[in-house]
Amino acid sequence: xxxxxxxxxxxxxxxxxxxxxxxxxxxxxxxxxxxxxxxxxxxxxxxxxxxxxxxxxxxxxx
Length: 62
Description:
By secondary structure, the protein is mainly α.
């Protein structure tokens, strides 16, 4: 099961609110969404590094 990161969940929530016209897609919202995308990418990269280190550790211990 794949889980979504907090930035990704927040992005989806904001998109949902924009679709329901609770929020406007203005310049500020575009900046927020861009920052959330960047943060989501960083979280994914960090998660990949951790998983790679764990896999290497398991291989080294075998």
